[in-house]
Design a protein that fits this description.
Distance between the termini: 14 Å
Number of helices: 2
Shape: elongated
Structural class: mainly alpha
Number of strands: 0
Number of domains: 1
Oligomer: single chain
């Protein structure tokens, strides 16, 4: 994921970082809300900006 330099890999890496941040036990309710919103926005960007044929899994 870090070797490939394309936008899909960057979106997946950002989604992974946000999901990992949610696993910390000292996360407040506002942080959870902001993180979930950002995670959903990243998944929506990946789905709508990159059609099925241009994702990394279509090798």
């Amino acid at each position: 994921m870090l070797i490939v330099h394309d936008l899909v890999a960057v979106l997946e890496l950002l989604a992974f970082v946000i999901a990992r941040k949610l696993l910390k036990p000292d996360v407040g309710a506002l942080d959870i809300l902001i993180s979930v919103t950002a995670f959903v926005m990243l998944l929506a960007a990946r789905k709508y900006l990159f059609p099925c044929g241009s994702t990394a899994s279509a090798e």
